[in-house]
Design brief:
heterodimer, A: about 110 residues, 11 strands, globular, B: about 120 residues, mainly beta, seven-stranded mixed beta sheet, four-stranded antiparallel beta sheet
Chain lengths: ~110, ~120
């Protein structure tokens, strides 16, 4: 099956810093989504981005499908950004998603 | 569409017991999914359900697992005879958010502890 690799595995930031989280995948996909799992365990969808670039406030994401990677940018990080960020991919819009192992982000005040 | 609601939020059971996890509400026009996350690990797909049928299932979803729509509004995951390794957070999800966008939207999860 498709492999999803996320890097770095852990990231510690000072509040206000910027960061880039990377997701590499082993096969072509038509479904790629980024999620944030907060410290209470809730999974929140951030972006549906099988290709191109999207922005939502301080967050933006870019997927280069032909090169099989996606990037999540966090600008001016806040302590509430802490948690685990998952990239998940699938072959079709409503197919199962294969998740990466996640990136644990800690933002310190 | 209303949010995905899961019950119970936490269940503790003895090994070998049957467990039913519930997800409400559902619609005939949406895909529904069950995923699970063993503590500290990644999220794993179990099964997808569309139009009253299983659409896809993973190798984890063996004969011990089943999904149903018992009354047209609930979507349930049943584990017939729980094992210690079934201890995990189980998430129900649908393929639309509140605005109708095609994004996977999760419930808050049901934590299952098997003793």
């Amino acid at each position: 099956g498709i492999q999803v690799e996320q890097s770095p595995p852990d990231l510690i930031l000072q509040e206000g810093a910027n960061s880039t989280l990377r997701c590499n995948f082993s096969d072509s996909v038509n479904n790629l989504q980024w999620f944030h799992q907060n410290p209470w365990g809730q999974l929140i969808n951030l972006f549906y981005i099988p290709s191109g670039t999207k922005q939502n406030g301080r967050l933006s994401a870019t997927t280069v499908a032909t090169e099989r990677y996606s990037l999540l940018y966090i600008s001016s990080s806040q302590t509430t950004d802490s948690g685990v960020y998952f990239c998940a991919v699938g072959p079709r819009a409503n197919s199962k998603l294969t998740f990466g192992k996640g990136i644990t982000l800690s933002v310190r005040p | 569409e209303p949010e995905v609601t899961q019950t119970p939020s936490h269940q503790v059971t003895q090994m070998g017991q049957e467990v039913i996890l519930r997800c409400v509400p559902i619609s005939n026009h949406l895909y529904f999914y069950w995923y699970r996350q063993i503590l500290g690990q990644k999220v794993e797909f179990l099964v997808s359900f569309y139009n009253n049928e299983i659409s896809e299932k993973s190798e984890i979803f063996d004969d011990q697992f089943s999904v149903e729509r018992p009354d047209g509004s609930n979507f349930t995951l049943k584990i017939r005879s729980t094992k210690l390794e079934d201890s995990a957070m189980y998430f129900c999800a649908r393929n639309r958010d509140a605005s109708g966008a095609n994004v996977l939207t999760f419930g808050a999860g049901s934590r299952l502890t098997v003793l």
